[in-house]
Design a protein that fits this description.
Shape: globular
Number of domains: 1
Order of helices and strands: HHEEHHHEHHEHEEHHEHHEHEEEE
Structural class: alpha+beta
Radius of gyration: 21 Å
Oligomer: single chain
């Protein structure tokens, strides 16, 4: 592979070897990798899985080496491994996420006591330059695993037309103390006192401000629904799942108005819809009502012969993943559209 006379030479060697995605890395010395593996309590040769599309096998040691290169600490490794395992779930369709033309990137949401213990990002700039070592190191470690084991290189095999910076790794935490509701992971079956990760492939967050909206919850959530039902996103045409982030102030406002997380999901599912005739106007792609021109992935209860039928952007209320995070200042929201029905679907894993 190559030899270096001192660790100072490692960054340039990593570029020559192609084991970095463009940012400098730390040298994965035997001492550091062994310490990382030892802290995990797992055997170095334990197989985590084959990472598509290259399908190189990632062992615990391989994941640890990439985590060291990312600047992660030993206590971060269980979250990296859990996220890799979650992405290998068939619902996530990692092969598709890696190679798609769509601009979705794996997002990791950390829930439980570890958010505070590790200092995972939850406040200002939660999706970006949060200054959280845990968030950036865990996210970058995942990126390097996908890069080095999965061969996720732009052009071939990655076909993203635009992509977004989340491919470098975005890890956010849920604001447990500031939230009026249980965590997303708790709503998906993980006890509130246990650590968990949820992976979801989605676009970059699209800001939702509440200009012109009064305090009535339905009016405010309609602002969120309006971003969810944008005509050009994958969800609007293929359904699937979507993520909605609420700032703690907005979540508390909705809760004070009597809404639980499930109420928010149901309200958004009812409002985030578009008229079929607007989504699929009559023309070459839909000249008449012959079923051969139907979207085959839409459920049967949508009458595809009716231009006035209102089509939801997701499969159901449970497909809207609501998280409370971000700066605890003014009310705000963000929408992260998913890849649609094609994959990248949310998978939650408890972290041992």
């Amino acid at each position: 592979m190559g030899a270096i006379g001192s660790l100072d030479e490692w960054p340039e060697l990593s570029y020559r070897l192609g084991v970095t995605d463009g940012l400098p890395t730390f040298p994965p010395t035997r001492e550091r990798v062994d310490a990382m593996v030892a802290a995990s309590g797992r055997a170095p040769d334990e197989i985590v899985g084959a990472i598509p599309p290259a399908d190189h096998v990632a062992t615990v040691e391989v994941v640890a080496a990439n985590a060291v290169m990312a600047g992660a600490l030993p206590e971060h490794l269980p979250f990296v491994i859990a996220a890799v395992e979650a992405m290998l779930d068939e619902r996530f369709n990692l092969r598709g996420v890696q190679c798609t033309t769509h601009g979705c990137a794996p997002l990791v949401i950390v829930s439980g006591p570890a958010v505070e213990r590790l200092g995972v990002a939850t406040a200002e700039s939660v999706f970006g330059a949060s200054a959280s070592r845990a968030s950036h190191a865990i996210g970058r470690a995942l990126r390097l695993v996908l890069w080095n084991c999965g061969g996720a290189r732009p052009g071939e095999p990655v076909k993203e037309v635009f992509g977004h910076a989340g491919r470098l790794g975005v890890v956010i935490g849920e604001s447990t103390a500031a939230s009026p509701w249980p965590t997303l992971a708790a709503s998906r079956g993980v006890p509130a006192d246990r650590d968990a990760v949820t992976v979801f492939a989605c676009e970059a967050p699209q800001s939702v401000a509440f200009w012109g909206a009064n305090d009535e919850p339905g009016e405010r959530l309609d602002r969120v629904a309006d971003v969810m039902r944008a005509q050009g996103n994958n969800n609007t045409h293929t359904m699937g799942e979507c993520l909605v982030a609420l700032s703690p102030a907005e979540a508390r406002h909705l809760a004070a108005s009597g809404l639980h997380r499930t109420d928010v999901q149901e309200t958004l599912f009812a409002r985030a819809r578009r008229r079929l005739g607007d989504l699929r106007p009559r023309g070459a792609l839909r000249p008449n009502d012959d079923p051969m021109y139907f979207y085959e992935w839409w459920p049967d209860w949508i009458d595809q012969t009716d231009d006035e039928a209102m089509v939801p952007t997701v499969w159901g209320p449970e497909s809207i993943h609501v998280v409370v995070t971000g700066g605890d200042s003014i009310p705000w929201a963000a929408v992260c559209p998913g890849w649609g029905h094609l994959g990248g679907l949310a998978v939650t894993r408890e972290v041992p």
